[in-house]
Write a structure and sequence with these properties.
Length: 95
């Protein structure tokens, strides 16, 4: 298993909209058969910063299977244009 951690930073004035989009979109991540769990949190000190944490069965389940699926587009559609640059995405082994 690996945990994907992605940091999204909202464009100015889009903080609430990004949060709502993440809530809508995360349901598509959860539909993928290799997704074990998915949640998002909002930073207390920097309210425009969101952290997405997804546990996948493997790195390939995320980087190949999910990213090349229709679910990926459905996940991103509600948040496109609401965040700065590409999010930082890193993967961690679960212990």
């Amino acid at each position: 298993m690996v945990t994907e951690v992605a940091i999204f930073i909202a464009l100015a004035g889009k903080e609430e909209e990004l949060g709502q989009g993440i809530i809508q979109g995360i349901e598509f991540i959860r539909q993928h058969p290799e997704c074990i769990s998915a949640n998002a949190t909002r930073c207390v000190e920097k309210p425009g910063r969101y952290m997405l944490s997804v546990v996948w069965s493997s790195l390939e389940a995320h980087t190949q299977d999910f990213r090349n699926s229709d679910l990926f587009k459905q996940w991103r559609d509600p948040i496109n244009g609401l965040y700065k640059e590409n999010p930082e995405v890193l993967h961690y082994h679960v212990y």
